[in-house]
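Per your request, structure below.
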C-alpha cells in the first residue's frame, strides 16, 4: 500500500510527545523565534511515524519529526534544525541566504556566486556543528539520571546515578561551559565589540542562530537539573558570556513572547530531571 499523497501547504506540523518540552522544544524555539506558524500532533505517535503507509518513506525511529510544507516528514533534531534554519533566518548571515522557501528566496539563491554559496554552506554547517555539540551536552545530562538504561526507572539505578552525577558536576559541566565560552570569546564577528555587554553572546557571526537557541535551552535544562552546581559555576565568573547568551536569548523577539504566553512547557520527567540528591555545589 502506497503512502497517502500530501498536498503542499504553508504549514509545519511537529510530531512530539505531549506534556513535556523534550527534544521537540528545540524545533518549537526555532519556529517561535521566526514567527512561523505550526501545529502539533501527539496522539499515536509511533503508530504513525513508524508506518511507511501512514507517514511515507523512510519511516522514523522516534520523534521529534516535522512535516514540511511539501508534505514530506523529516526527523532527528539536528537534521530538522539544519533544514529549517535558513528559512527561520537562523543559519547565520550567509547560511540563511540558502533559504529556498518562496520564489523571492529562490531568486536570491540563484543570484549567489559559487564562492558565496560555498561560504553560505560552510557557515550553515558550522552552526549545525555547534547545535550538535550542545545536543551532546543535553544527552550527557540526561544520562546522569539514567546511566544504565533509559528503559529502567531512576529508582533502579540510583547508586550508579549518584556516581555519574559526581563526575558530571565536577568535570563534564565545566568542560562544556568552557568550550562554549571559548567559542563566544573567539568569535571574530563580535570580538571588536567586546565592550558591548551583548557583543560576545553570539556563537556564530553577530546574529542569533539555532546554535544560540539550543544552548539557551540546554543551559535552562542543566540549571533545572543541577541548580546548586550551575549557580556556583555562574558565580565563578569563568563562563560569563555563556550565561549572558542565555539572558540575551530569553529576551529575543519571538522567544520572549513565547515564554510569556505560558505555552512553553515546564521541565519534569523528561530529559532534564531534578533529583536533589544528585546536585551539589562542589
Amino acid at each position: 500500500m502506497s503512502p497517502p499523497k500530501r498536498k503542499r501547504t504553508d504549514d509545519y506540523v511537529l510530531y512530539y510527545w505531549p506534556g513535556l518540552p523534550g527534544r521537540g522544544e528545540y524545533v518549537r524555539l526555532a519556529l517561535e523565534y521566526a514567527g512561523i506558524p505550526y501545529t502539533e500532533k501527539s496522539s499515536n505517535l509511533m503508530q504513525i511515524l513508524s508506518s511507511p503507509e501512514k507517514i511515507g518513506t523512510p519511516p522514523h525511529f522516534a520523534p521529534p519529526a516535522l512535516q514540511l510544507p511539501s508534505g514530506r516528514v523529516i526527523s532527528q533534531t539536528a537534521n530538522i534544525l539544519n533544514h529549517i534554519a535558513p528559512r527561520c533566518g537562523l543559519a547565520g548571515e550567509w547560511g540563511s541566504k540558502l533559504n529556498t522557501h518562496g520564489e523571492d528566496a529562490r531568486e536570491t539563491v540563484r543570484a549567489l556566486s559559487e564562492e558565496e554559496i560555498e561560504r553560505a554552506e560552510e557557515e550553515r554547517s558550522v552552526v549545525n556543528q555547534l547545535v550538535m555539540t550542545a545536543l551532546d551536552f543535553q544527552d550527557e545530562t540526561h544520562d546522569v539520571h539514567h546511566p544504565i538504561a533509559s528503559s529502567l526507572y531512576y529508582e533502579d539505578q540510583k547508586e550508579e546515578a549518584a556516581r555519574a552525577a559526581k563526575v558530571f558536576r565536577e568535570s563534564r559541566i565545566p568542560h562544556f561551559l568552557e568550550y562554549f565560552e571559548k567559542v563566544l570569546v573567539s568569535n571574530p564577528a563580535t570580538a571588536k565589540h567586546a565592550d558591548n555587554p551583548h557583543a560576545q553572546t553570539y556563537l556564530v557571526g553577530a546574529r542569533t542562530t539555532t546554535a544560540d537557541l539550543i544552548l539557551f535551552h540546554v543551559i535552562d535544562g542543566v540549571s533545572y537539573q543541577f541548580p546548586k552546581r550551575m549557580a556556583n559555576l555562574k558565580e565563578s565568573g569563568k563562563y560569563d558570556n555563556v550565561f549572558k547568551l542565555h539572558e540575551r536569548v530569553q529576551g529575543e523577539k519571538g522567544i520572549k513572547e513565547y515564554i510569556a504566553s505560558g505555552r512553553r512547557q515546564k521541565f519534569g520527567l523528561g530529559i532534564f530531571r531534578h533529583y536533589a540528591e544528585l546536585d551539589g555545589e562542589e
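Residues 114-145 form the longest helix (32 residues).

Regards,
D.
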